[in-house]
Amino acid sequence: MTYAYYPGCSLKGTAIDYHTSALALAERLGIELKEMEDWVCCGASPIHQRNPALASGVANLLLSLSEGISKDVAVLCAACYHNMKKAEVEMREDGKKRNEVEELSGIPFNPEVRTRHFLDILDKDYGLNALKEKVVKPLSELRVACYYGCLLSRPPEIAFDDPEQPMIMERILEAAGAETVSWSHRLECCGASHAVPLTDAVLRLVNDVLASARDAGADIIACACPLCQANLDMRQEGIRAKLGVAHNLPAVYFTQLLGIACGATGKQVMIEKGMVSAVPLLRAKNLL
Amino acid sequence: MSKIGVFVCHCGENISRTVDCARVAKASGQIRGVAVAKDYKYMCSDPGQALIKNAIKEHKLDGVVVSACSPHMHEKTFRKAVTEAGLNQFLCEMANIREHCSWVHEKEEPTTRKAIELVRLMVEKVKRNMALEPIRVDVTKRALVIGGGVAGIQAALDIADGGHEVILVEKDPSVGGHMAQLSETFPTLDCSQCILTPKMVDVGSHPNIKLYTYSEVEKIEGFVGNFKVTIKKKARSVDIDKCTGCGECQLKCPSKKIPSEFDRGLKNRTAIYIPFPQAVPARPVIDREHCIYFTKGKCKACQKVCPTEAVDFEQTDEYVEEEVGGIVVATGFDLYTTDKQGPYPDYKGYGEYGYGEDPDIIDGLQFERLASASGPTGGAIQRPSDGKEPKSVVFLQCIGSRHPSKGIEFCSKICCMYTAKHTMLYKHKVHHGTAYVFYMDIRAPGKGYDEFVRRAIEEDGAVYLRGRVSRIYRSGDHLIVKGADTLSGAAVEIEADMVVLATAVMPQPGIEGLFQKLGISYDQYKFASEAHPKLRPVECATAGIFLAGACQGPKDIPESVAQASAAASKALILFSRDQMLREPVVAKVNENTCIACWYCVEICPFTAISKKDIRDRQGNLIKRVAEVNPSLCTGCGTCAATCFSNSIDLDGFTDEQIYSEINSLMAVGQDLFPEPEKAEGDSPDEKAA
Amino acid sequence: MSDRTDKIREVARKWLADGTVEAVVGWEQGTYREKCSPVLVRKPEDADRLLFNDRCTNNLMTYLKRDPVRGMEKVGVVAKGCDIKSLIGLLQESQVEREKVMVLAVTCEGVKKDDGTVPIKCQACDVNTPTFYDEIVGEKVASNPDPEARFKDLEKLDAMTPAERNSFWREELDKCIRCYACRQACPLCICSRCIAEKNQPQWVETSPHPRGNFSWNLVRAYHLAGRCVECEACETACPVNIPLMLLNRAMARTVKGAFDYEAGKDPEVQPPLRTFNLDDDNSFIL
Amino acid sequence: MSESPQSETQKDGAGLPEAATSWEPRIVAFICNWCTYTGADLAGTSRMKYPPYVRVIKIPCTGRFDPLFMIKAFERGADGVLVSGCHPGDCHYTAGNYNARRKYTVFKALLETLGMDMDRVWFSWISASEGGKWVDTIRKFTEVIQEKGPFREYREMIDVG
Amino acid sequence: MKYQIRLSGDEIRLMQEVKARSGVDLAKCYQCGECTAGCPMTPEMDAGPTKTLRLIQLGMEEALFDLNTPWLCASCETCTARCPNDIDIALVMDVVRQMARLKGKKIPVKEPRIFQDVFLKSVENNGRLFEPGMIAFYNLRSGDLFHDVGLGPKMLLKGKLPLLPHTSKNREKLREIFRKAEALEKEAGKKASEEAHDESGH
């Protein structure tokens, strides 16, 4: 199983732990994530906020880089996934759009190419039964709130599970022995695209998400997007300072939890990188 | 001494779970006048009914109380059963010990006691029940349809096709009503006249339909099945049997400047005129108010030119009588006007829009005429003031409607749809024009209706603005419309070439006079009232009178037609039997004590009570008394409760019956409640099954 | 006063002489102290028996529905404003035909009761100068600007607790001997057979015990609600002095408050229990 | 056939409710056939529960309700009387309930003037769909009557009589 | 007064321009409000998406470009996902921002615009985003020199911020796409206004 791997900028920086843990997990599962060469930034939200056509052009460039590796591009970042998948779907379904984008980017579109989120790969390609067999340290008694955020399933055309009630992350983490909680804010936006310019609004949104997870009885939040994780993790201190609410709720990547379940050490999944440390919790549950 | 049978049902366990049915039967057996009391598992089953029938014969019972479920459930079943055993059905009553007792109380002593008391109450009532016979009323199998619009036409055709004679009365010179004035119809945009005129022709030629146009209902007497109607045929001044409808008279008539009613004043007509080319009958009528001969005594141009000598200046109003069994009221609607002094004096006009005096501010029906291929402009959209094609037209919804300060609270229901249609018709004819619509809500609940409105907006580009218009005034060549769009929060000003007002749908002015003659009720706006808003929406409270179309409230064409067919089927149901049977729960007057104060006459909601003279053999008036018409009485009993000399009573619920029920409840002695243990083994013969 | 007497005689004489009426019902000098008695004058020369003074207390309208007046083609009746109220009541209920009655109205400053006191109806009279008549005699007399003053003595009832009111009435009604004088005197008790005498069913128990007395007086007041014109004839007639007008006035006050209706005012208006309004008070119904 | 209710009473001896020691509330409900009776049926089919002390007398319409029925009920020992029919605008006979409402207004004022305990006289509109309202009304009314005890004031009159 | 308008038939042009740029037909919007209901940024917005669309429908350009709403849009696309008429509202917000920029409108909230610019500048310069440099540049541009300054060292300590920018060999290709897109959007603006002109029949 080999995939063309597009990490994106965050995974080489603020989300290095996502990148590392995903590779550690993939290795244990026997999935090869082969990084595409000379990839560029997808432009995240700012790129389509400036010019929607530009976003599609850049996405087409990125899709073309998978050539020679695999027609399936594995993506971990939700923003990258969103930009690439949206462009891909549009081009496949709308000939006029495809022509425009090809013209703009100067690159032909290969309709065979599929943008795949790693969650989807685990669920559909690898399979939960196979995953279960690899679990050596079940995440027992760990109550996990699975957080999807907004970009993984919007617009609905790009979703790989029910766009309003996805359960894919729950299924996967439950296969690894975790207990997942049912909570209200699984799909609410954390405001990541405004994390820098509009911090106050973002504090409000993050606080709502954290409060919902906490009220549902979660020990920890699992994320599938570097922007979400960064926001949920780093903004807790700001929330304590500005809103007077102390959540102290670790937010980690689902790949980190799965990696641990499959026998990786804390170090191998960079579990220590979180601002709100998950280490004491995982130790208490005998997972570290 | 009465011989009553009491039959206590267990209803499986539905009753016996909380009520000691055997004890109820035993206690019932001890009530004076009860000849037999039995209990049984399922009284409504065949063996249960057989048990009752046998008991009636064996004990020669003169009354039966079935103590079981609600009478609303099985009263008919048991009344049928006792009839089969030779007992009058109205000597059977039900004591409701299931819905009102076993199901709502716990298993405890007072529950069984209550059941016993409920039986006792009914026993006392049944003792005073009378053998009654259903009331039979002969039915005249002919119908009167009032109003020749689409609703009246449909009702008349359906009844006539059902094989019964129909008298169709139309006040105007032709049938057709407002639908004949419309250009296209929503939501299909088919041509209104194209779909209506075949029906008009059918009405004119149907062997079962007797058509009175230019006629009005003068008087109505009688009651369901037996109405006598007097119809006034207004003098037409044309003998329609001689007239061939050639139209020569119209061409020669020198009085040519009379605003045409059909074209809503957008075109003129002559004094002798056929209202529109497709009129049925296609015969002219002389408008005597404007005819030069009738006003000045000289002219007769039409008479001179008439090849068949059909013009008859000497004609007078004629009165004919018709007997009918049922009546369909289909008098339709008219539009509210924004005039200062309109035909609806109770409602205020719109000074803020200039009281309807600007020629370029028109109403919806006028726009229909403008858009109609048969209209004054041949279907070209031209504004009335100078005939220019308007580049921007502003449509205003809810004019009069939903405007309590003008006196009207209701929604006129059809304006949202026809306004959307108007914008489409306009845009289809004036491609570069803009149609603006001021609306408060868009109400389009109908098959294909909302899609239609969305089409007007999305495909034909009508600009919908959510808000009302505060003022319209003229500024040179334009009308300035000052409104608002609450969605954007903006005050909106539009320079319009023409304004179309969707004015409220109102009953015909003065229609309450007819409703009073018919004895049917109407609401504050003079829309006719139905008997029940949900379950009897087609019938009037007065038996034998049915409603069709917009006389009852705003309705669109499909609704009017549907209701017309419903009204027709109601009439046909009435005509399906030679006689009608009615529950004999009716009021009766004690003539000895009636003092003719007429409280009952005034208070009866069904005008079922009239004043009767009692005379001796020589014809001298001895006294006057109230008299109930059992065909009209519905048995509400309001008269009985109102009469202070207690000279009127209600069969089935007489004062005496109700009093004995009250007495039975209170006159309870210990002996009526034998203790449960005593009940065993001690049962008197046959008292418990 | 004598002026009005003269004029009454003059009009009556004229009506009788020219055949306008068959007879005139009026008052004449009584035989007992100053009291006046009803009289039926049939001949013009007897018109001089008629008079009017402050002892013309009787309400002559009751005679309109009795023999022999009832059978007459047309009859004149001398009437004070308050008497005309009962005529209006009778007209509303079709007991009298307007065209058969000639009303000879007389203005009135108020009359006196047998004991010389002035009745409440006169103290708060609003029809000293009648407005409904065929002919009127006497100068215009001003009315009490506050006709509601007649409700003043209800205040003592209002002030009581329900229990106190109940025992007050129990005590008063216990006195009732069921002589039905109240009914006989009432111009608007028009039933030919009173409900109190109907026994199938027995609406009211006949013997004078508290339960029957309570029911009878309640029925009487209820049947007069919205109809009673407060002529006070019942109370005057009561041999055991039950304050019947307290009940009647309480009902009149209720009807005025709830339906804005006053009995005896306008023959064209429907009596309150013969009609309804969609927006009648609904607040007391759950 | 026709036996007057009076003779019935005499036959049953005293004809009065049981002695106060075993007192149970006696509530008489005059209810119209179309709305409240059907509403009470609905309470039954929905298996709602309420105390068993109410006795229903069915009338076709509240328009049929002569207030004197209420007096008769009190004369015969009722502790409370309820009159219930269709809501305004819903009358099967279009106007019976409006006419009834006028009678209530007048009769209620009369009872108040006579110092009757008005907690024992209830009026309500209960539609065919208001099974719950019927149950609530009967529960509350029973509670009130249970708290008040027997209608002593009226019974005293009866006893004296 | 921005909220007092005179309608003369020209108002449709704004809606047509949006359609030309986005393919979105705003005539379909019936103002139900579901976009505003689901928008996470509504509390910070002056108008909210529903009213923003309304201003476009009525051609209220001046009022539209004064709104902070398009600039506060977080691009979560909840509005698009739930719109009963399948209107891509998030795309309309993007297009409004684009139009404001092209028309040289004054932006009512500067921070998101600055962020957008420095982010894309960083991408354009390096081919990939260099987060520390971008943040520093953002702080400089926005004048909020110490924005999130506390987070930086902590992240550095955690090894979450790289010290040097990554670059990519495809940087040139990327820049080419940027340049081309910019040229195209200007051209599209001209075309849109011409089309609108034609359709409204003037």
Can you walk me through this structure?
- The complex is a heteropentamer of chains A (288), B (689), C (286), D (161) and E (202).
- Chain A is 47% helix and 11% strand.
- Chain A is an alpha/beta fold and 288 residues long.
- Chain A has a four-stranded parallel sheet, sandwiched between helices.
- In chain A, α2 packs across α3.
- The termini of chain C are far apart.
- Chain D is an alpha/beta fold.
- Chain D has a four-stranded parallel sheet, sandwiched between helices.
- The longest helix of chain D has 18 residues.
- Chain E has 202 residues and is an all-alpha fold.
- Chain E has two domains: 96 residues, Fumarate Reductase Iron-sulfur Protein, Chain B, domain 2; 72 residues, no CATH class.
- Chain E has eleven helices and one strand, in the order βααααααααααα.
- Chains in contact: A-E, B-C, B-D, B-E, C-D.
- β26 of chain B pairs parallel with β1 of chain E, so a sheet runs across the interface.
Largest interface, C-beta within 8 A: A-E, 58 and 64 residues
Q: How many structural domains in the coordinates of chain B?
A: 5
Instruction: Quickly count the domains of chain D.
Output: 1
Task: Tell me the Rg of chain B in angstroms.
Answer: 33 Å
How are the SSEs placed, and which strands pair?
The complex is a heteropentamer of chains A (288), B (689), C (286), D (161) and E (202).
Chain A: E1 2-6, H1 16-29, E2 32-35, H2 44-50, H3 52-64, E3 72-75, H4 78-93, H5 95-105, E4 114-117, H6 118-126, H7 128-134, E5 143-147, H8 168-175, E6 179-180, H9 199-215, E7 220-223, H10 226-243, E8 251-253, H11 254-261, H12 279-284
Parallel strand pairs in A: 1-2, 1-3, 3-4, 5-6, 5-7, 7-8
Helix pairs in contact in A: 1-11, 2-3, 3-4, 3-5, 4-5, 6-7, 6-8, 9-10
Chain C: H1 2-17, E1 23-29, E2 36-41, E3 75-79, H2 81-92, E4 101-106, H3 120-123, E5 135-137, H4 155-159, H5 162-174, H6 181-185, H7 210-224, H8 233-237, H9 244-259
Parallel strand pairs in C: 1-3, 3-4, 4-5
Antiparallel strand pairs in C: 1-2
Chain D: H1 5-11, E1 27-32, H2 36-45, E2 54-59, H3 67-75, E3 80-85, H4 96-113, E4 121-125, H5 131-148, H6 152-160
Parallel strand pairs in D: 1-2, 1-3, 3-4
Helix pairs in contact in D: 2-5
